[in-house]
Amino acid sequence: MGHRRSTWVRYLLLTTAALVFAFPFYFMVVGAFQQAPTNSPESLVPTSGWTLGNFAAIDARIDLVRSLVNSLIFTVGVLLGTVVFGLLAGYAMARLDFRGRGATWVLMLLVQMVPFQLLMIPLYVQITRGFGLGDTYLGMIAPFAINTTAVFIFTQFFRALPQEMFEAARVDGAGELRILTSIAAPLVRPALVTVVLVTFIGPWNEFLWPFLITKDASLQPMAVSLANYISNVAQSTANPNGAILAGATALAFPVVILFVLFQRYFTASDLGTAVKG
Amino acid sequence: MTAAPAAGRPRLRTRLLGAQPIGALFALPYLVFVAVIFAYPLGFAVYIAFHDYFFTAPGVDVPKPFVGLDNFASVLTDPQVLQSFRNTAVFLVINVPLTVVLALVLATALDSGIRWVAAYRVAFYVPYLTASVSLVGVWMLLFSSGGLVNSVLGPLAPNPSWLINSALAMPTIALYVTWKQLGFYILLYLAALQNVPRERHESAMTDGANAWQRFAHVTVPGVRPVTTLVLILAIITGANLFTEPYLLTNGGGPDGASSTPVLLIYQQGIQQQNPDTAAAIGMLLVIVVGMLSLAANRINREA
Hints:
heterodimer; A: MetI-like fold; 2 domains; 0% strand; globular; B: mainly alpha; MetI-like fold; 71% helix; disordered N terminus
Protein backbone atom coordinates (compact mmCIF):
# COMPACT_ATOMS: atom_id res chain seq x y z
CA MET A 1 0.00 0.00 0.00
CA GLY A 2 2.76 2.43 1.03
CA HIS A 3 4.68 1.48 -2.07
CA ARG A 4 1.77 2.21 -4.38
CA ARG A 5 1.25 5.60 -2.76
CA SER A 6 4.90 6.56 -3.23
CA THR A 7 4.71 5.59 -6.91
CA TRP A 8 1.67 7.82 -7.26
CA VAL A 9 3.52 10.69 -5.56
CA ARG A 10 6.42 10.18 -7.95
CA TYR A 11 4.23 10.46 -11.04
CA LEU A 12 2.51 13.53 -9.65
CA LEU A 13 5.88 15.16 -8.89
CA LEU A 14 7.42 14.33 -12.25
CA THR A 15 4.36 15.34 -14.23
CA THR A 16 4.00 18.66 -12.44
CA ALA A 17 7.69 19.40 -12.94
CA ALA A 18 7.59 18.35 -16.59
CA LEU A 19 4.61 20.63 -17.25
CA VAL A 20 6.35 23.56 -15.58
CA PHE A 21 9.45 22.81 -17.65
CA ALA A 22 7.67 22.43 -20.93
CA PHE A 23 5.20 25.28 -20.54
CA PRO A 24 7.46 28.15 -21.72
CA PHE A 25 8.14 26.11 -24.90
CA TYR A 26 4.48 25.63 -25.51
CA PHE A 27 3.97 29.36 -24.97
CA MET A 28 6.83 30.14 -27.37
CA VAL A 29 5.71 27.88 -30.21
CA VAL A 30 2.01 28.73 -29.99
CA GLY A 31 2.73 32.45 -29.64
CA ALA A 32 5.06 32.39 -32.65
CA PHE A 33 2.08 31.46 -34.86
CA GLN A 34 -0.51 33.74 -33.22
CA GLN A 35 -1.56 37.17 -34.41
CA ALA A 36 -1.56 38.33 -30.79
CA PRO A 37 0.21 36.00 -28.29
CA THR A 38 -1.97 35.68 -25.23
CA ASN A 39 -1.35 37.24 -21.86
CA SER A 40 -4.36 35.69 -20.18
CA PRO A 41 -4.86 32.13 -18.97
CA GLU A 42 -8.31 31.81 -20.59
CA SER A 43 -6.89 31.85 -24.12
CA LEU A 44 -3.92 29.52 -23.59
CA VAL A 45 -5.31 27.06 -26.12
CA PRO A 46 -6.14 29.29 -29.07
CA THR A 47 -8.46 28.01 -31.78
CA SER A 48 -8.12 30.90 -34.19
CA GLY A 49 -5.80 33.75 -35.06
CA TRP A 50 -3.11 31.58 -36.62
CA THR A 51 -0.56 33.40 -38.79
CA LEU A 52 2.93 33.22 -40.27
CA GLY A 53 3.12 36.99 -40.10
CA ASN A 54 5.37 37.01 -37.02
CA PHE A 55 8.17 35.34 -38.96
CA ALA A 56 7.75 37.88 -41.77
CA ALA A 57 7.73 40.71 -39.21
CA ILE A 58 11.02 39.71 -37.58
CA ASP A 59 12.54 38.79 -40.94
CA ALA A 60 11.89 42.34 -42.13
CA ARG A 61 14.17 43.64 -39.36
CA ILE A 62 16.96 41.09 -38.89
CA ASP A 63 17.11 38.82 -41.98
CA LEU A 64 16.29 35.42 -40.46
CA VAL A 65 17.89 33.25 -43.13
CA ARG A 66 21.14 35.20 -43.18
CA SER A 67 21.35 35.06 -39.35
CA LEU A 68 20.66 31.32 -39.28
CA VAL A 69 23.27 30.74 -42.00
CA ASN A 70 25.77 32.74 -39.92
CA SER A 71 24.96 30.58 -36.89
CA LEU A 72 25.48 27.51 -39.03
CA ILE A 73 28.84 28.70 -40.37
CA PHE A 74 30.00 29.54 -36.84
CA THR A 75 28.84 26.14 -35.55
CA VAL A 76 30.20 24.09 -38.44
CA GLY A 77 33.57 25.84 -38.13
CA VAL A 78 33.76 24.89 -34.46
CA LEU A 79 32.61 21.32 -35.20
CA LEU A 80 35.25 20.85 -37.92
CA GLY A 81 38.05 22.12 -35.71
CA THR A 82 36.86 20.05 -32.78
CA VAL A 83 36.39 16.81 -34.72
CA VAL A 84 39.62 16.98 -36.76
CA PHE A 85 42.01 18.29 -34.12
CA GLY A 86 40.11 16.72 -31.22
CA LEU A 87 40.36 13.25 -32.79
CA LEU A 88 44.10 13.74 -33.34
CA ALA A 89 44.69 15.01 -29.81
CA GLY A 90 42.40 12.41 -28.21
CA TYR A 91 44.11 9.58 -30.10
CA ALA A 92 47.54 10.84 -29.07
CA MET A 93 46.47 11.17 -25.43
CA ALA A 94 44.92 7.71 -25.30
CA ARG A 95 47.17 5.61 -27.50
CA LEU A 96 50.55 7.22 -28.16
CA ASP A 97 53.47 7.37 -25.80
CA PHE A 98 55.21 10.69 -26.37
CA ARG A 99 57.16 13.19 -24.36
CA GLY A 100 54.84 15.83 -22.90
CA ARG A 101 51.74 13.66 -22.72
CA GLY A 102 51.43 14.07 -18.95
CA ALA A 103 51.89 17.83 -19.23
CA THR A 104 49.25 18.00 -21.98
CA TRP A 105 46.80 16.14 -19.72
CA VAL A 106 47.38 18.65 -16.91
CA LEU A 107 46.88 21.46 -19.42
CA MET A 108 43.55 19.99 -20.51
CA LEU A 109 42.35 19.96 -16.90
CA LEU A 110 43.53 23.55 -16.37
CA VAL A 111 41.73 24.74 -19.52
CA GLN A 112 38.47 23.38 -18.09
CA MET A 113 39.00 25.57 -15.03
CA VAL A 114 39.73 28.91 -16.74
CA PRO A 115 36.46 30.83 -17.02
CA PHE A 116 35.86 32.46 -20.38
CA GLN A 117 34.84 35.68 -18.67
CA LEU A 118 38.35 36.22 -17.33
CA LEU A 119 39.70 35.92 -20.86
CA MET A 120 37.00 38.08 -22.43
CA ILE A 121 38.86 41.41 -22.39
CA PRO A 122 42.33 40.14 -23.40
CA LEU A 123 40.84 37.87 -26.09
CA TYR A 124 38.82 40.76 -27.44
CA VAL A 125 41.96 42.94 -27.61
CA GLN A 126 44.03 40.13 -29.10
CA ILE A 127 41.54 38.97 -31.73
CA THR A 128 40.18 42.32 -32.88
CA ARG A 129 43.36 44.40 -32.56
CA GLY A 130 46.21 41.88 -32.53
CA PHE A 131 44.94 39.58 -35.28
CA GLY A 132 42.53 42.03 -36.95
CA LEU A 133 39.77 39.41 -36.92
CA GLY A 134 36.90 41.59 -35.69
CA ASP A 135 33.82 41.09 -37.88
CA THR A 136 35.07 37.83 -39.40
CA TYR A 137 33.86 34.24 -39.09
CA LEU A 138 37.39 33.18 -38.14
CA GLY A 139 37.43 35.59 -35.22
CA MET A 140 34.07 34.24 -34.10
CA ILE A 141 35.21 30.61 -34.32
CA ALA A 142 38.77 30.94 -32.92
CA PRO A 143 38.04 30.88 -29.15
CA PHE A 144 35.88 27.75 -29.54
CA ALA A 145 37.90 26.05 -32.30
CA ILE A 146 38.77 22.92 -30.29
CA ASN A 147 36.36 21.91 -27.55
CA THR A 148 38.39 20.46 -24.67
CA THR A 149 35.40 18.47 -23.43
CA ALA A 150 35.40 16.73 -26.83
CA VAL A 151 39.09 15.88 -26.49
CA PHE A 152 38.28 14.25 -23.14
CA ILE A 153 35.42 12.25 -24.66
CA PHE A 154 37.59 11.04 -27.57
CA THR A 155 40.40 10.12 -25.18
CA GLN A 156 38.09 8.01 -23.02
CA PHE A 157 36.66 6.17 -26.02
CA PHE A 158 40.08 5.48 -27.58
CA ARG A 159 41.34 4.18 -24.22
CA ALA A 160 38.54 1.63 -24.14
CA LEU A 161 39.72 -0.06 -27.37
CA PRO A 162 41.85 -3.22 -27.00
CA GLN A 163 45.63 -2.68 -27.01
CA GLU A 164 46.28 -5.81 -29.13
CA MET A 165 44.46 -4.25 -32.07
CA PHE A 166 46.89 -1.35 -32.14
CA GLU A 167 49.90 -3.61 -31.71
CA ALA A 168 48.77 -5.81 -34.59
CA ALA A 169 48.29 -2.80 -36.85
CA ARG A 170 51.72 -1.46 -35.95
CA VAL A 171 53.37 -4.84 -36.60
CA ASP A 172 51.67 -4.82 -40.01
CA GLY A 173 53.46 -1.55 -40.66
CA ALA A 174 50.51 0.83 -40.53
CA GLY A 175 51.41 4.42 -39.67
CA GLU A 176 49.67 6.08 -36.71
CA LEU A 177 47.63 8.43 -38.91
CA ARG A 178 46.41 5.46 -40.90
CA ILE A 179 45.55 3.49 -37.75
CA LEU A 180 43.58 6.49 -36.51
CA THR A 181 41.67 7.16 -39.71
CA SER A 182 40.93 3.62 -40.87
CA ILE A 183 40.77 1.59 -37.63
CA ALA A 184 40.33 3.65 -34.48
CA ALA A 185 38.07 6.51 -35.62
CA PRO A 186 35.40 4.26 -37.21
CA LEU A 187 35.24 2.29 -33.94
CA VAL A 188 34.42 5.36 -31.87
CA ARG A 189 31.50 6.52 -34.02
CA PRO A 190 29.17 6.82 -30.97
CA ALA A 191 31.71 9.19 -29.42
CA LEU A 192 31.62 11.21 -32.61
CA VAL A 193 27.86 11.69 -32.35
CA THR A 194 28.13 12.63 -28.67
CA VAL A 195 30.89 15.12 -29.45
CA VAL A 196 28.88 16.69 -32.27
CA LEU A 197 25.84 17.07 -29.97
CA VAL A 198 27.80 18.44 -27.03
CA THR A 199 29.82 20.79 -29.23
CA PHE A 200 26.89 21.95 -31.38
CA ILE A 201 24.95 23.58 -28.54
CA GLY A 202 27.99 25.70 -27.56
CA PRO A 203 28.44 27.95 -30.60
CA TRP A 204 24.83 27.71 -31.78
CA ASN A 205 23.58 29.13 -28.48
CA GLU A 206 26.57 31.39 -27.75
CA PHE A 207 25.71 35.03 -27.37
CA LEU A 208 28.47 36.94 -25.55
CA TRP A 209 31.46 36.34 -27.83
CA PRO A 210 29.88 36.87 -31.27
CA PHE A 211 28.05 39.86 -29.76
CA LEU A 212 31.42 41.36 -28.77
CA ILE A 213 33.23 40.92 -32.03
CA THR A 214 30.57 41.45 -34.69
CA LYS A 215 29.41 44.98 -35.33
CA ASP A 216 28.38 44.15 -38.91
CA ALA A 217 24.77 42.93 -38.79
CA SER A 218 25.21 40.81 -41.91
CA LEU A 219 27.73 38.63 -40.02
CA GLN A 220 25.79 38.23 -36.79
CA PRO A 221 24.55 34.78 -35.81
CA MET A 222 20.90 34.31 -34.89
CA ALA A 223 21.44 34.61 -31.10
CA VAL A 224 22.99 38.05 -31.56
CA SER A 225 20.42 39.25 -34.12
CA LEU A 226 17.53 38.16 -31.90
CA ALA A 227 19.10 39.83 -28.85
CA ASN A 228 19.51 43.05 -30.84
CA TYR A 229 15.90 42.82 -31.91
CA ILE A 230 14.75 42.30 -28.31
CA SER A 231 16.84 45.10 -26.83
CA ASN A 232 16.75 47.71 -29.61
CA VAL A 233 14.11 47.15 -32.23
CA ALA A 234 11.19 45.69 -30.26
CA GLN A 235 10.28 48.91 -28.40
CA SER A 236 9.74 50.75 -31.67
CA THR A 237 7.42 48.09 -33.11
CA ALA A 238 3.64 48.05 -32.67
CA ASN A 239 3.25 44.38 -31.75
CA PRO A 240 6.70 42.94 -30.99
CA ASN A 241 5.66 39.93 -28.88
CA GLY A 242 4.76 37.63 -31.74
CA ALA A 243 7.94 38.59 -33.61
CA ILE A 244 10.11 37.91 -30.55
CA LEU A 245 8.53 34.47 -30.11
CA ALA A 246 8.96 33.72 -33.82
CA GLY A 247 12.66 34.61 -33.61
CA ALA A 248 13.04 32.57 -30.41
CA THR A 249 11.43 29.57 -32.13
CA ALA A 250 13.71 29.87 -35.17
CA LEU A 251 16.79 29.93 -32.93
CA ALA A 252 15.62 27.12 -30.62
CA PHE A 253 14.33 24.56 -33.07
CA PRO A 254 17.41 23.29 -34.88
CA VAL A 255 18.95 22.23 -31.55
CA VAL A 256 15.76 20.69 -30.21
CA ILE A 257 15.26 18.64 -33.37
CA LEU A 258 18.89 17.49 -33.43
CA PHE A 259 18.64 16.44 -29.80
CA VAL A 260 15.34 14.60 -30.12
CA LEU A 261 16.71 12.67 -33.11
CA PHE A 262 19.92 11.64 -31.38
CA GLN A 263 18.67 11.51 -27.79
CA ARG A 264 20.22 8.16 -26.98
CA TYR A 265 23.74 9.49 -27.60
CA PHE A 266 23.27 12.25 -25.09
CA THR A 267 23.71 10.12 -22.01
CA ALA A 268 24.78 10.82 -18.53
CA SER A 269 27.90 8.67 -18.61
CA ASP A 270 29.37 10.46 -21.65
CA LEU A 271 28.74 13.86 -20.18
CA GLY A 272 29.87 12.73 -16.75
CA THR A 273 33.22 11.72 -18.24
CA ALA A 274 33.46 15.08 -19.90
CA VAL A 275 32.73 17.12 -16.86
CA LYS A 276 34.84 15.13 -14.46
CA GLY A 277 37.72 14.92 -16.96
CA MET B 1 58.55 -2.58 -41.95
CA THR B 2 62.21 -1.60 -42.07
CA ALA B 3 64.88 -3.73 -40.44
CA ALA B 4 65.32 -3.36 -36.70
CA PRO B 5 67.59 -0.37 -35.97
CA ALA B 6 70.82 -0.72 -34.00
CA ALA B 7 70.26 -1.80 -30.42
CA GLY B 8 71.27 1.22 -28.27
CA ARG B 9 69.78 4.11 -30.24
CA PRO B 10 66.07 3.42 -30.28
CA ARG B 11 66.07 2.84 -26.57
CA LEU B 12 67.67 6.22 -25.92
CA ARG B 13 65.28 7.85 -28.37
CA THR B 14 62.34 6.11 -26.75
CA ARG B 15 63.46 7.29 -23.36
CA LEU B 16 63.79 10.87 -24.55
CA LEU B 17 60.78 11.20 -26.83
CA GLY B 18 58.54 8.23 -26.01
CA ALA B 19 57.73 5.17 -28.10
CA GLN B 20 55.55 7.16 -30.55
CA PRO B 21 57.01 10.67 -30.72
CA ILE B 22 54.54 11.43 -33.54
CA GLY B 23 51.95 11.82 -30.75
CA ALA B 24 53.41 15.24 -30.01
CA LEU B 25 52.67 16.22 -33.60
CA PHE B 26 49.08 14.94 -33.26
CA ALA B 27 48.58 16.97 -30.09
CA LEU B 28 50.30 20.05 -31.52
CA PRO B 29 47.23 21.82 -32.99
CA TYR B 30 45.48 21.51 -29.64
CA LEU B 31 48.55 22.79 -27.80
CA VAL B 32 48.85 25.79 -30.15
CA PHE B 33 45.14 26.47 -29.59
CA VAL B 34 45.59 26.39 -25.80
CA ALA B 35 48.64 28.66 -26.02
CA VAL B 36 46.90 31.27 -28.21
CA ILE B 37 43.39 31.16 -26.75
CA PHE B 38 44.06 30.40 -23.08
CA ALA B 39 47.66 30.78 -21.89
CA TYR B 40 48.55 34.04 -23.63
CA PRO B 41 45.25 35.85 -22.85
CA LEU B 42 45.48 34.64 -19.24
CA GLY B 43 48.92 36.22 -18.88
CA PHE B 44 47.69 39.27 -20.77
CA ALA B 45 44.70 39.59 -18.38
CA VAL B 46 47.06 39.69 -15.40
CA TYR B 47 49.28 42.22 -17.19
CA ILE B 48 46.32 44.50 -18.01
CA ALA B 49 45.01 44.33 -14.44
CA PHE B 50 48.32 45.62 -13.03
CA HIS B 51 48.90 48.38 -15.60
CA ASP B 52 47.24 51.63 -16.58
CA TYR B 53 46.07 49.99 -19.78
CA PHE B 54 43.98 51.75 -22.41
CA PHE B 55 43.15 51.30 -26.07
CA THR B 56 45.18 53.29 -28.56
CA ALA B 57 44.88 53.82 -32.28
CA PRO B 58 46.62 51.01 -34.21
CA GLY B 59 50.35 51.54 -34.47
CA VAL B 60 50.50 54.21 -31.78
CA ASP B 61 52.74 53.20 -28.91
CA VAL B 62 51.99 55.06 -25.69
CA PRO B 63 53.57 53.87 -22.43
CA LYS B 64 51.18 52.00 -20.17
CA PRO B 65 52.79 52.28 -16.72
CA PHE B 66 52.75 49.61 -14.03
CA VAL B 67 50.34 50.73 -11.32
CA GLY B 68 50.49 47.88 -8.82
CA LEU B 69 47.18 47.28 -7.11
CA ASP B 70 45.62 50.62 -8.13
CA ASN B 71 43.07 49.01 -10.45
CA PHE B 72 42.02 46.61 -7.72
CA ALA B 73 41.74 49.48 -5.24
CA SER B 74 39.50 51.51 -7.54
CA VAL B 75 37.38 48.45 -8.33
CA LEU B 76 36.95 47.54 -4.65
CA THR B 77 35.79 51.06 -3.80
CA ASP B 78 33.41 51.26 -6.76
CA PRO B 79 29.85 50.96 -5.37
CA GLN B 80 28.66 49.50 -8.71
CA VAL B 81 31.17 46.67 -8.46
CA LEU B 82 30.33 45.93 -4.84
CA GLN B 83 26.64 45.91 -5.73
CA SER B 84 27.24 43.44 -8.56
CA PHE B 85 28.99 41.06 -6.17
CA ARG B 86 26.15 41.44 -3.65
CA ASN B 87 23.67 40.68 -6.45
CA THR B 88 25.66 37.55 -7.27
CA ALA B 89 25.44 36.52 -3.61
CA VAL B 90 21.63 36.93 -3.71
CA PHE B 91 21.57 34.86 -6.88
CA LEU B 92 23.66 32.05 -5.39
CA VAL B 93 21.67 31.89 -2.14
CA ILE B 94 18.51 31.23 -4.16
CA ASN B 95 19.85 29.27 -7.11
CA VAL B 96 22.33 26.83 -5.54
CA PRO B 97 20.13 25.18 -2.87
CA LEU B 98 17.14 25.04 -5.25
CA THR B 99 19.29 23.47 -7.96
CA VAL B 100 20.79 20.78 -5.71
CA VAL B 101 17.49 19.82 -4.06
CA LEU B 102 15.30 19.83 -7.19
CA ALA B 103 17.88 18.06 -9.36
CA LEU B 104 18.42 15.28 -6.83
CA VAL B 105 14.71 14.81 -6.07
CA LEU B 106 13.70 14.71 -9.74
CA ALA B 107 16.61 12.44 -10.69
CA THR B 108 15.65 10.04 -7.87
CA ALA B 109 12.02 10.03 -9.03
CA LEU B 110 13.12 9.37 -12.63
CA ASP B 111 15.45 6.57 -11.56
CA SER B 112 12.82 4.46 -9.82
CA GLY B 113 11.58 2.42 -12.78
CA ILE B 114 8.95 4.77 -14.05
CA ARG B 115 7.07 4.75 -17.36
CA TRP B 116 7.54 7.42 -20.06
CA VAL B 117 11.06 8.19 -18.75
CA ALA B 118 12.13 9.42 -22.21
CA ALA B 119 9.29 11.96 -22.36
CA TYR B 120 10.09 13.28 -18.89
CA ARG B 121 13.78 13.47 -19.78
CA VAL B 122 13.08 15.52 -22.91
CA ALA B 123 10.91 17.94 -20.90
CA PHE B 124 13.72 18.45 -18.38
CA TYR B 125 16.66 18.72 -20.83
CA VAL B 126 15.14 20.96 -23.47
CA PRO B 127 15.59 24.23 -21.53
CA TYR B 128 19.25 23.32 -20.97
CA LEU B 129 19.81 22.71 -24.68
CA THR B 130 18.08 25.85 -25.89
CA ALA B 131 19.79 29.19 -26.43
CA SER B 132 19.39 31.50 -23.47
CA VAL B 133 18.52 34.35 -25.84
CA SER B 134 15.41 32.45 -27.00
CA LEU B 135 14.27 31.56 -23.52
CA VAL B 136 14.98 35.02 -22.12
CA GLY B 137 12.65 36.36 -24.82
CA VAL B 138 9.90 34.01 -23.59
CA TRP B 139 10.42 34.81 -19.89
CA MET B 140 10.45 38.52 -20.63
CA LEU B 141 6.94 38.24 -22.04
CA LEU B 142 5.72 35.87 -19.31
CA PHE B 143 6.98 38.11 -16.49
CA SER B 144 6.24 41.52 -18.03
CA SER B 145 3.85 43.90 -16.27
CA GLY B 146 0.82 42.79 -18.26
CA GLY B 147 2.22 39.31 -18.86
CA LEU B 148 0.72 35.90 -18.30
CA VAL B 149 2.22 35.39 -14.82
CA ASN B 150 0.76 38.62 -13.49
CA SER B 151 -2.62 38.00 -15.07
CA VAL B 152 -2.74 34.59 -13.37
CA LEU B 153 -1.75 36.15 -10.04
CA GLY B 154 -4.30 38.93 -10.44
CA PRO B 155 -4.31 41.10 -7.32
CA LEU B 156 -1.29 39.19 -5.97
CA ALA B 157 0.94 40.43 -8.81
CA PRO B 158 3.93 42.38 -7.50
CA ASN B 159 4.05 46.10 -8.15
CA PRO B 160 6.34 47.18 -9.76
CA SER B 161 6.40 43.99 -11.80
CA TRP B 162 9.05 41.25 -11.47
CA LEU B 163 11.78 42.46 -13.80
CA ILE B 164 11.49 46.16 -12.96
CA ASN B 165 11.25 45.62 -9.21
CA SER B 166 14.61 46.07 -7.50
CA ALA B 167 13.81 43.46 -4.84
CA LEU B 168 12.57 40.86 -7.35
CA ALA B 169 14.76 41.31 -10.46
CA MET B 170 17.68 39.19 -9.20
CA PRO B 171 15.46 36.47 -7.63
CA THR B 172 13.58 36.22 -10.95
CA ILE B 173 16.88 35.75 -12.79
CA ALA B 174 17.86 33.12 -10.19
CA LEU B 175 14.61 31.23 -10.84
CA TYR B 176 15.13 31.49 -14.60
CA VAL B 177 18.66 30.06 -14.42
CA THR B 178 17.57 27.28 -12.05
CA TRP B 179 14.88 26.29 -14.57
CA LYS B 180 17.24 26.57 -17.55
CA GLN B 181 20.15 24.56 -16.09
CA LEU B 182 18.32 21.95 -14.02
CA GLY B 183 18.18 19.33 -16.79
CA PHE B 184 21.95 19.15 -16.96
CA TYR B 185 22.25 18.56 -13.22
CA ILE B 186 19.47 15.93 -13.34
CA LEU B 187 21.61 14.19 -15.98
CA LEU B 188 24.65 14.21 -13.67
CA TYR B 189 22.61 12.87 -10.74
CA LEU B 190 21.06 10.14 -12.89
CA ALA B 191 24.58 8.91 -13.70
CA ALA B 192 25.55 9.03 -10.03
CA LEU B 193 22.44 7.10 -8.97
CA GLN B 194 23.51 4.18 -11.16
CA ASN B 195 26.53 3.82 -8.90
CA VAL B 196 24.60 3.58 -5.62
CA PRO B 197 24.50 -0.17 -4.90
CA ARG B 198 20.99 -1.69 -4.93
CA GLU B 199 21.88 -3.79 -1.89
CA ARG B 200 22.12 -0.71 0.29
CA HIS B 201 18.53 0.19 -0.55
CA GLU B 202 17.42 -3.39 0.00
CA SER B 203 19.10 -3.70 3.39
CA ALA B 204 17.59 -0.35 4.45
CA MET B 205 14.20 -1.70 3.39
CA THR B 206 14.57 -4.86 5.48
CA ASP B 207 15.50 -2.59 8.40
CA GLY B 208 12.08 -0.99 7.94
CA ALA B 209 13.23 2.34 6.48
CA ASN B 210 10.56 4.23 4.53
CA ALA B 211 11.11 5.97 1.18
CA TRP B 212 12.12 9.26 2.78
CA GLN B 213 14.57 7.57 5.19
CA ARG B 214 16.14 5.64 2.34
CA PHE B 215 16.47 8.87 0.33
CA ALA B 216 18.13 10.65 3.27
CA HIS B 217 20.40 7.81 4.47
CA VAL B 218 21.24 5.90 1.29
CA THR B 219 20.73 8.13 -1.75
CA VAL B 220 22.07 11.45 -0.45
CA PRO B 221 25.35 10.05 0.95
CA GLY B 222 25.71 7.81 -2.12
CA VAL B 223 25.82 10.71 -4.57
CA ARG B 224 27.92 13.04 -2.43
CA PRO B 225 30.84 13.42 -4.90
CA VAL B 226 28.41 14.52 -7.62
CA THR B 227 26.77 16.95 -5.22
CA THR B 228 30.16 18.63 -4.84
CA LEU B 229 30.43 18.82 -8.64
CA VAL B 230 26.91 20.24 -8.94
CA LEU B 231 27.67 22.84 -6.25
CA ILE B 232 30.84 23.96 -7.99
CA LEU B 233 29.27 24.10 -11.47
CA ALA B 234 26.25 26.01 -10.14
CA ILE B 235 28.55 28.52 -8.43
CA ILE B 236 30.58 28.99 -11.63
CA THR B 237 27.43 29.43 -13.73
CA GLY B 238 26.01 31.94 -11.25
CA ALA B 239 29.21 33.96 -11.18
CA ASN B 240 29.29 34.24 -14.97
CA LEU B 241 25.85 35.65 -15.71
CA PHE B 242 25.74 38.01 -18.65
CA THR B 243 22.96 37.27 -21.15
CA GLU B 244 20.24 37.21 -18.49
CA PRO B 245 20.85 40.61 -16.88
CA TYR B 246 21.75 42.10 -20.26
CA LEU B 247 18.44 41.13 -21.89
CA LEU B 248 15.95 40.12 -19.20
CA THR B 249 16.44 43.20 -17.00
CA ASN B 250 17.66 45.50 -19.75
CA GLY B 251 21.30 45.81 -18.66
CA GLY B 252 21.24 44.90 -14.98
CA GLY B 253 18.31 47.12 -14.03
CA PRO B 254 16.44 48.49 -12.29
CA ASP B 255 19.21 50.85 -11.21
CA GLY B 256 21.87 48.15 -11.00
CA ALA B 257 19.73 45.83 -8.86
CA SER B 258 20.49 42.89 -11.17
CA SER B 259 23.90 43.90 -12.53
CA THR B 260 26.58 41.21 -12.42
CA PRO B 261 30.38 41.32 -12.47
CA VAL B 262 30.54 40.04 -16.06
CA LEU B 263 28.04 42.69 -17.19
CA LEU B 264 30.33 45.30 -15.59
CA ILE B 265 33.37 43.77 -17.30
CA TYR B 266 31.57 44.34 -20.59
CA GLN B 267 30.37 47.83 -19.71
CA GLN B 268 33.67 49.07 -18.27
CA GLY B 269 36.06 47.19 -20.53
CA ILE B 270 34.40 47.52 -23.88
CA GLN B 271 31.72 50.20 -23.73
CA GLN B 272 33.66 52.66 -21.55
CA GLN B 273 37.10 51.56 -22.79
CA ASN B 274 38.64 50.84 -19.38
CA PRO B 275 40.10 47.36 -19.91
CA ASP B 276 42.34 47.68 -16.85
CA THR B 277 39.59 47.90 -14.23
CA ALA B 278 37.55 45.35 -16.21
CA ALA B 279 40.46 42.89 -16.02
CA ALA B 280 40.74 43.55 -12.28
CA ILE B 281 37.03 42.72 -11.84
CA GLY B 282 37.65 39.50 -13.79
CA MET B 283 40.52 38.47 -11.51
CA LEU B 284 38.55 39.27 -8.36
CA LEU B 285 35.65 37.23 -9.69
CA VAL B 286 37.88 34.23 -10.37
CA ILE B 287 39.39 34.47 -6.88
CA VAL B 288 35.94 34.63 -5.25
CA VAL B 289 34.65 31.71 -7.34
CA GLY B 290 37.76 29.68 -6.50
CA MET B 291 37.30 30.27 -2.78
CA LEU B 292 33.58 29.44 -2.90
CA SER B 293 34.31 26.24 -4.82
CA LEU B 294 36.94 25.18 -2.30
CA ALA B 295 34.51 25.94 0.52
CA ALA B 296 31.74 23.94 -1.19
CA ASN B 297 34.13 21.04 -1.62
CA ARG B 298 35.20 21.11 2.03
CA ILE B 299 31.74 21.59 3.54
CA ASN B 300 30.27 18.79 1.47
CA ARG B 301 33.10 16.44 2.41
CA GLU B 302 32.62 17.06 6.13
CA ALA B 303 28.83 16.98 6.06
